[in-house]
Amino acid sequence: MDNLIGIKQIAKLANVSIGTVDRVLHNRPGVSKATRDKIETIIKETGYKKNTVASRLNLAGRKKLKIAVLIPEVSSNWSYWNLPKKGIEKAVEELSEMGILVSYYYFTDPFSFIKMGDAILNKKYDAVVTVPFFMVESNNLLSKAKRDNIPIVFLDTEVKLDYPSFFIRQDSNLAGRVAGRLLHGLVGNDGLYFVVNIVTERGLHANNQQRENGFREFFRTNFKDSKISIMTINHPVDRPFEINSEIESWFKDERPKGIFVTNARSYLIPDILKAHSVSNVSVVGFDLHEDNIKCLRNKEIDFLINQKPEFQGYTAIKGMFKFLTEQDSSDLNMDVPVEIIVQENCNLI
Amino acid sequence: MDNLIGIKQIAKLANVSIGTVDRVLHNRPGVSKATRDKIETIIKETGYKKNTVASRLNLAGRKKLKIAVLIPEVSSNWSYWNLPKKGIEKAVEELSEMGILVSYYYFTDPFSFIKMGDAILNKKYDAVVTVPFFMVESNNLLSKAKRDNIPIVFLDTEVKLDYPSFFIRQDSNLAGRVAGRLLHGLVGNDGLYFVVNIVTERGLHANNQQRENGFREFFRTNFKDSKISIMTINHPVDRPFEINSEIESWFKDERPKGIFVTNARSYLIPDILKAHSVSNVSVVGFDLHEDNIKCLRNKEIDFLINQKPEFQGYTAIKGMFKFLTEQDSSDLNMDVPVEIIVQENCNLI
DNA sequence: CTGAAAGCGCTTACAG
DNA sequence: CTGAAAGCGCTTACAG
């Protein structure tokens, strides 16, 4: 920028060399209090702002910013966790000339989460991007990172943290309320609603619980008299899905008019309904899983809510880069939009 | 980047100076065919890619990229056209260190569009961002820009162009189909549907016509027997709105169950309905106009479709910058997502 | 505690 | 037709 102040101008104004200005800017030792004060005053007065482009051009070769990404291991053929990764890779591509290096680590359970977290901290990364599936272990990682002064941004899930940190994720309660709005629009006041939680061996995911809460909140606030039943399917990730007696019992009494599935496995619902000859049911689920999209096209699912996982990954890297280079954390605390998907706008997302 | 090839390495491999490499890279004259060929081969073999950051650091001071933005004049207090501007300003902010200069020009009619277009071309901008409201005049601008080798990206509206160019806008036909899907979900097969075109003195906007077409297409394809009436309101922009006899006649026969307004002025509908004691009508409209949002909150409008105008402006500038600096036009042809808004997710957008 | 020099990768006059 | 030098704004050894 021609009309903006640079370190050269600062140096001239302070009657020092640019090296000394640089020391002050980076809080490096070896400057007398007097010169430091003088330079700091001038920096403030002139509103000097570092040229990040020039700074990174210089550093790109010798001192890349190293970011560790610790996410759940990709399990099945379609995996949700490939999506944030895609966004991360896009961000890395865009920042490649600025000197950035992203390494991936994977966890499957609390134990591997801690193990990988420790490995990351030992390798002295500049920042960490991770997913707080496990509350205790996430707090453990956070406190260690705090000690080493390494910033963390948490994606996907919100948990209670002992220290403030960064979050990029959807407000799951809000997403549940949106689901309520959508499903009520289709079903109206008179029908019975099912909330279906599909639970893996790890138990009910925090997001799912919050979505259920939001859904119920929507009806409590707007349509008090609607009937809602909470149903649970226990379905370990890697075992084939079976309609068990518990599911059979869903349809003993009244039949549902609307079903809200609190996670990505809403594609299981149509077969359950068919098996019990239940028709005319509206379904709202989550995530652009390929099977969900198929159901959307078949009209077996009416709405999907998208968490914009690519966007989450992209924003995490771009935001962290901005934070590391400009101390600007404004992109690191974000409620991702609750994106509503129907058959027609599905391809454009 | 340390492991990537730079001009220095190219120069060494070709036994020339970096100046000569630079001449070849920029297709500047003054290089013998032999050296040019040799260097070009090496560039291809090594997969050399210019470091845009270094390049722009160099040029930011002396040769900023100048982009002209030619958009409709902001008319009322709330103006749609402030939104793309917001996105443009965000992009400019992000690119400030890379040397960019954006100037705004405004038009109100075909005449001022041409006038401003000529003014822009005379000032030798590097690129133009504009809105093709007027087909003939837009093509006129495009052909002149083609002559001067200045790229144009068109926002908001798609028109038939004589030459290929760049477009960033929503697929309005698709948006109409989405509206059909949403409204049918609320109303079902039995009700009467109104499509309401609210027309200014400039006539029906191309987007509105395409949205109407898409809406009808949705029903023609999926629910053939639904009854749809097309209604028109003539309402010059700066005159107060009045319920005239034409509107009165809407309700002579059957009353509508669903209303689709093809532009941002869906907030006019609730008063019309109240005046005729018509209730239980679902309404879908466009754009996050403050009055629309109010209606969404009051439950007088059920869905709004957003065209992401900020995003359009942002993408236009970022995409054009990428095109000018890296000859990569991949972000300059874009179908903006059809974003579905309900009361609950309205604030997050 | 401070300064002068070299360099990040590219671009531009200028000299020959 | 080609090269050598200066510079974009910042950062880093190195010298004193």
From TrEMBL, chains A, B:
This is LacI family DNA-binding transcriptional regulator. GO terms for molecular function: DNA binding. Pfam families: LacI (PF00356), Peripla_BP_4 (PF13407). InterPro entries: HTH_LacI, Lambda_DNA-bd_dom_sf, Peripla_BP_I, SBP_2_dom. The keyword ATP-binding does not apply. It comes from the Bacteria. The keyword Electron transport does not apply. Keywords: DNA-binding, Transcription, Transcription regulation. Residues 5-59 form the HTH lacI-type domain. It comes from Arenibacter arenosicollis.
